[in-house]
Design goal:
2 copies of one chain form a homodimer. By secondary structure, chain A is α+β, with helices and mostly antiparallel strands. Chain A folds into 3 domains: 239 residues, Bira Bifunctional Protein, Domain 2 (BirA Bifunctional Protein, domain 2, 2-Layer Sandwich), CATH 3.30.930; 131 residues, YbaK protein, CATH 3.90.960; 95 residues, Anticodon-binding domain (Rossmann fold, 3-Layer(aba) Sandwich). Chain A contains 16 helices and 31 strands. In chain A, the strands form 8 sheets. In chain A, strands 3, 7, 8, 9, 10, 11, 12, 21 and 24 form a 9-stranded mixed sheet that branches. A 5-stranded mixed sheet of chain A has the order 16-14-15-17-20. In chain A, strand 22 and strand 23 form a beta hairpin. In chain A, helix 1 crosses helix 12, helix 2 packs antiparallel against helix 6 and helix 2 crosses helix 12. The longest helix of chain A has 21 residues. Chain A is globular. Chains A, B: It is an enzyme of class 6 (ligase). Chains A, B: It is found in: Cytoplasm. Chains A, B: It comes from Novilysobacter avium. Chains A, B: Belongs to the class-II aminoacyl-tRNA synthetase family. ProS type 1 subfamily. Chains A, B: Its EC number is 6.1.1.15.
């Protein structure tokens, strides 16, 4: 590919609405152009990257035994009414009325269509298992489209759906897809984690999200430094610490006139934050409750709500706190001689000794507090906090690290919900109609491109992993219009690289070297090779890897080895 | 590919709504399934064929120097208002309102979006010419979707758009694309014609439609048997015949009491239909006109309307005929001694001698009529008829044949209409803002699949050209479950074919031979190879080409030669 024949259009400035680095760099590099809110054109440069992702996804789906098909993007309302999602899906569902006033939607997902297909196509258990996929344009009418293709309204997705006679076979397919997803993101050269996910209200039995790790990610992920364990921070279990130490101090009342937070109290007392206890006043089914976590921990509302009597808890009002503890927020705590309160202690709090809590008296805290001596044992001990870095991994192997991630894939055991709602059955070996169980498996193809940039960039621009780069190498020609010999040499090198299976672009646009190199760094080509008159005389090429500190002059054999090794 | 791992689902019956053979066969073969009116799911089998077409189109676009990109399918109303097409496009434009009540459409074509892209991306003449394409899902809200994917509402299209400084460069690109289209349809193995098309109201300067020839085609096409000339029958010029013969008969009044058509009069008189003249009474700008064509020809309304004074002609009423000719339809003619009428004669009529016309008297015709003697020379001589088979080709080379065609491609010199309406300019070499001229080039990717079937089928099913077949060969295994040796032999053959670059499926479903062969004939696989225990013993394979009368038993080398030769 000669760049003079290609449409490459980088720019220095980007609109202020581009908030995150991938959005900025995709605009600067000229990979995407905005058409309207949440609608982006993929330029020739951007499409090259998108197609590389698409190809890897397709190859791994094929290898996993999924069969490609293509469903319409426009779907009839009637199907969505069968599952109740015409109303339930909410505002993201783009509803369309045709010229005959019939209602349709622009498919945000295809569970209804594939289940309709299955109930027509699959009649016998002999046709199961069946796993179909498509790579297709989807639409979700985001209320606030932003971040470029990271949260666009129209986007490219791979969605797969599987049908099984029984749960064991669904488990088997789920593992196959889990492995295929691992291979996809590994082949794309991305650092990622497969994260346990909440199956939520749909009631499937297993679910994993695949996150590309990046500092800008929306989700916090906890993962083991020793095993494959990973989970959303809010879902990861905080294991019980070792047994409680013996009491070593007397309980003392300390004056804390302006100290209403654990941080402020710890600072005043010159003690560690991890020796303080945060008391959170709640109203559950049985009334007033104090939930306790360590001063350096965060309460986890999802875990709290799973405890008996707390499914619909709320925070206590100041009036309720005054009524139950006789003081105001900032000084509350579990020590109430003669009028004990209902206490739920986090596992780590239950293991503390000589700790600091509010004194239930304005301007005072208690230090050197100990369970059983200064207050009763907690009524409930449970995991009610977010995990933090350094916690033991819940799978017993290694310690947790915390990173931020961008969700780019999701696999899900759907169960029989859709098949039941749409009356999809097959005959089993005895001729009896049975409802198949389903899995669904999504990859945000266009989102991966943005996520990869969030993870791989520097001050000069994008740093593509080899597999996603628009070209693996670029041959920069110095003065192509003045010097026919450099063009001839560049073309010869281009043929050699092609012969090795390396996609190379020739930058024959005639730009000054500085501008040409800046463009190639911005668009993130891994290998840059400069062909110049001087190099031809010396018998060398100037080579630089995108991540190298500097370029070096090397001969042809060394060059081919360097570029070829990375492929 | 093992068919036991694939989703192949043929059926014997098809819904009554499937009117044309391609629709029926695509449903029977299980290539498509209807989701809703004009919306079809491409099954795994159908998608394999669709992707083959897509790949050939993509390769030829790349080879022609067009650059692939991807625009959104959803387009904002504002752009369509700039060109006036938001209203003018009509009911096929599917309009969509989003959750914020902004209006969009599901793109039926992308002139507006690409011109918007160009006015942002193309600033200088140095960036021209530029040619972009995409392969993408389009939507046209057909008032009567029918014929399966032949006239579906959602369909797959390749659309390309080019931008040029001047008309000469557009001409050059137009020729390049014309050639690329020729290669596409040639590679796909289709019989086709590139047909001159009317540029219509948009006012472009050149336009060709590409038609796949098929008896069921909607359009009649005239093409030379000696040159590449082809045009829609209604647009092909009927050349002037040789000079007029001398009068050889006297004019006689003949009784034709019940004979109101040329056919009936010719039969009664025992003369050839080509010796009779049909008179058509019209009202043009200047009043009453008689248009004359030979009895065996059809009047061409498009050609008529291009004559001076006839742009908005209409047929005369019976009252107007009575007033001007004194008689009723069925007996009218141009001979009106003493009260001559305005006569427009087709070129072939002007060259006739001794012809038959209505006598302007109920129940009578005139025979032996001659121009100049019995009536004045025609006021106008012009080409006002449809060409017929055997006419000389308008390009002077060969004779015309007539065939029916299905439009699958269209290339068009758009000119500056869109660029002007949307204020798209570039700076020329002198720094002056100039409006680029545009070309557009469409291919109906999904429609090609149906058109190919209309052209290539027999009583047993589809007969795919090699390039479009879902697999080039199928290895049918007899009794795979009973006889491991046949599976081993089939797998060895499969590897050999793969090594030769031949895509082969293995039918290991365990069907009876008759059912298996019927399936493979229905889905149209070109090469069928049967592996059986008997064959293994004899050292032969049973081979049959889809179009062969019978199968034959041949050895491995002969088999590989036969299958390989066709690739």
């Amino acid at each position: 590919m000669r760049l003079s024949q290609f449409h490459l259009h980088t720019s220095k400035e980007v609109p202020a609405e581009a908030e995150i680095i991938s959005h900025k760099l995709m605009l600067k590099a000229g990979m995407i152009r905005k058409l309207a809110s949440g609608l982006y054109t993929w330029t020739p440069l951007g499409l090259r990257v998108l197609r590389k992702v698409e190809r890897v996804v397709r190859e791994e789906m094929d290898a996993a035994g999924a069969i490609e098909m293509l469903m319409p993007s426009v779907q009839p309302r009637e199907l969505w009414e069968e599952t109740g999602r015409w109303e339930k899906f909410g505002g993201q569902l783009l509803k369309i009325q045709d010229r005959k006033d019939a209602w349709y939607c622009y498919g945000p997902t295809h569970e209804e269509v594939i289940t309709d297909f299955a109930r027509q196509e699959l009649a016998s258990y002999k046709q199961l298992p069946a796993c179909f996929y498509q790579i297709q344009t989807k639409f979700r009418d985001e209320i606030r489209p932003r971040f470029g293709v990271m949260r666009a309204r129209e986007f490219l997705m791979k969605d797969a759906y599987s049908f099984h006679l029984d749960d064991a076979d669904l488990d088997r397919q789920y593992e196959v897809m889990h492995e295929a997803y691992n291979r996809i993101f590994t082949r794309l050269g991305l650092e990622f984690r497969a994260v346990f996910a909440d199956t939520g209200a749909i009631g499937g039995s297993a679910s994993h999200e695949f996150h590309v790790l990046a500092a800008s990610g929306e989700d916090a992920i906890a993962f083991s430094d020793a095993s494959g364990y990973a989970a959303n921070v809010e879902l990861a279990e905080a294991l019980a610490p070792g047994s409680r130490a013996a009491a070593g101090a007397d309980m003392t009342r300390v004056e804390t006139p302006y100290q209403r937070t654990c941080e402020a109290v710890a600072e005043l007392l010159g003690t560690g934050l991890e020796r303080t206890v945060k008391s959170i006043a709640l109203i559950g089914e049985q009334g007033f409750v104090l939930a306790l976590v360590r001063g350096d921990h965060q309460i986890n509302e999802i875990k709290l709500a799973k405890l008996p009597g707390l499914a619909e808890y709320r925070m206590a009002t100041e009036a309720e706190i005054l009524e139950n503890l006789g003081t105001e927020p900032g000084f509350i705590g579990p020590v109430m001689p003669g009028k004990p309160v209902h206490v739920i202690a986090d596992r780590s709090v239950a293991a503390m000794a000589d700790f600091v809590v509010g004194a239930n008296e304005k301007g005072f805290h208690l230090a050197g507090v100990n369970w059983g001596r200064d207050l009763p044992e907690p009524d409930v001990v449970a995991d009610i906090r977010n995990v933090v870095a350094g916690d033991p991994s819940p799978d017993g192997s290694g310690k947790l690290q915390i990173a931020r991630g961008i969700e780019v894939g999701h696999i899900f055991q759907l169960g029989r919900t859709y098949a039941k709602a749409m009356d999809c059955t097959v005959q089993d070996a005895n001729g009896k109609a049975v409802t198949p169980t389903m899995g669904c498996y999504g990859v945000g193809v266009s989102r991966i491109v943005a996520a990869a940039i969030e993870q791989n960039h520097d001050a000069s621009g994008i740093v593509w992993p080899e597999a996603m780069a628009p070209w693996q190498a670029v041959i920069c020609i110095i003065n192509p219009k003045k010097d026919p010999a450099v063009v001839v040499a560049a073309e010869a090198l281009h043929r050699q690289l092609n012969g090795m299976g390396i996609e190379a672009a020739m930058d024959d646009r005639g730009l000054r070297p500085g501008a040409m190199f800046a463009d190639m760094e911005l668009i993130g080509v891994p290998h840059r090779i400069v062909v110049s008159e001087r190099g031809i005389v010396a018998g060398t090429f100037e080579y630089r890897h995108r991540l190298a500190e500097a370029s070096e002059n090397i001969g042809l054999d060394a060059l081919l080895t360097r570029v070829g090794a990375a492929i």
